[in-house]
Recover the amino acids of this structure.
């Protein structure tokens, strides 16, 4: 667990170590099957996998991008740029969302397991069943890492979490835990998921009222809570920017007074949350059909 946080070279060596990732996944599967999701070894295994999934899209060898995730039936060679799992250009990204996602291997080995749906479901199971905060945080954090990029892999993981594995109820429950780091990581994961336009309505329907309910009445006084508040505002921004319906959901959940109160805080120490709230307010005001409702 300590070695897995030793930086890019350490992660690379551990990912390449034959049988290591498979053994970690095997152990966690056994713990879940035996209804023992709270033992210390399971926590250690999940924390290692969390660390090994950090910057995975950027650090994997080019061969994975070519053999597993690059599928460009409608994209010419001129559109491609070097890098794991595809490109960053807007044109390619838009086309990418229209392209079928690659089929995953039925029996993944080694590093391939890190983004496989089997491990995604394991993380979601631990989030739901474990009561150890570190295990919950590491499971959420691994999913956060896997959904952080812009290529086909993060998109595939996000769709698995939201649509194939029905993971939103488990993540939603983590918004209401008392442990600040778990809550912060859950919100960060939802922020990543909410960047996918195809998932925004599902997320808004399942989670938006809960996001509003955990927003504070004003800017909180500690840094972790302040960062969580900022992430909630940016998640709500993603969910409402292109949807009047979702903006109305925020309104009906009594979110507007909270967002206004957060936005008017002028303390430099906690300006991150105020700035995020102001961005959200500006976006909400662009829905001109809701102006009369806002004023009421």
């Amino acid at each position: 667990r300590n070695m897995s946080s030793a930086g890019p070279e350490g992660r690379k060596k551990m990912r390449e170590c034959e049988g290591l990732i498979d053994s970690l996944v095997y152990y966690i599967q056994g713990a879940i099957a035996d209804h023992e999701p709270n033992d210390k070894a399971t926590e250690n295994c999940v924390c290692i996998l969390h660390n090994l999934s950090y910057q995975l899209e950027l650090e994997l060898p080019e061969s994975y991008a070519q053999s597993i995730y690059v599928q460009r039936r409608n994209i010419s060679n001129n559109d491609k740029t070097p890098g794991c799992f595809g490109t960053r250009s807007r044109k390619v990204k838009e086309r990418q969302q229209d392209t079928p996602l690659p089929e995953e291997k039925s029996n993944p080995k080694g590093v391939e397991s890190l983004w496989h749906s089997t491990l995604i479901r394991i993380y979601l199971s631990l989030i739901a069943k474990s009561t150890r905060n570190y295990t919950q945080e590491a499971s959420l954090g691994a999913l956060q890492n896997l959904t952080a990029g812009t290529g086909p892999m993060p998109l595939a993981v996000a769709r698995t979490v939201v649509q194939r594995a029905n993971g939103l109820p488990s993540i939603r429950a983590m918004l209401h835990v008392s442990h600040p780091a778990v809550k912060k990581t859950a919100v960060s994961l939802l922020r990543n998921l909410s960047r996918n336009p195809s998932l925004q309505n599902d997320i808004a329907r399942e989670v938006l009222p809960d996001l509003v309910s955990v927003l504070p009445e004003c800017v909180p006084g500690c840094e972790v809570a302040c960062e969580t508040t900022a992430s909630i505002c940016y998640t709500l921004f993603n969910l409402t920017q292109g949807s009047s319906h979702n903006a109305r959901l925020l309104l009906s959940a009594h979110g507007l007074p909270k967002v206004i109160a957060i936005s008017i805080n002028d303390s430099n120490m906690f300006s991150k949350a105020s700035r995020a709230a102001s961005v959200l307010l500006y976006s909400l005001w662009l829905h001109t059909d809701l102006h009369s409702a806002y004023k009421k």
Q: What stands out?
A: Residues 70-101 have pLDDT under 50 and may be disordered. The longest helix spans residues 223-240. DSSP finds 17 helices and no strands in the chain.
